[in-house]
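User: quick one, fold this
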Amino acid sequence: MKEKIINYIKQNRVSTTEVADCLGKSGALEGVVPLNPHHFAVGEIQYLYAIQDSNWTVHEDLDREPAREKIVMIDALDVHGRAVIGDIVSKYILLYLGNCGIVCTGKMRDAHILLKENYPIWCNGVSPVGCFNKQVDKLEFVEEIEKRKDHYQGAIAVCDDSGVVVIPKGFISEEFYNRLVAIEEQEDIWYDCIDRRKWSTYKTICLKEYLKDK
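Assistant:
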């Protein structure tokens, strides 16, 4: 079912706006926006995290379990505004491992290169000040990491110019697939009513008068 939903979103370019509507107008990652415009990516999430002003765990977990053909999500839990990764790690994740995109809840660095290469990256801004590359003590963060990993790992991320929406694992079902199909059909009907029939948005979206039209 996960693959079916991903393929439908990819083939029909279902937007984050429509996916969020299917989730009851929720699911967006707060503050995460595209670094480069006009990219569209959808895929299963591979969850990584950074703590204690260090990106050691990003390298470590990616080496232990390399992500391929996924959306690599890096959660900035305790980095105090430092950029989590930059050009080298982004290139490794996207080009050498062959992933669909990078989503970072924190900042990125080497913006001049990331922009020039036009990488599919969604993040919380940029900074020249990066994380340290030092080993960390995870003990204090174990509970929070496990909680967030349980939520994000294996979920689906949809990314476009509006940001990133996450479809939680509990929503990956035939019912949610049918919601996606229905909302695509609804969009087609709305555009037909407004573009071809020249109806008002009030008559179309609020009153839904097309439902009375045989």
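User: anything notable?
Assistant: The chain is about 40% helix and 20% strand.
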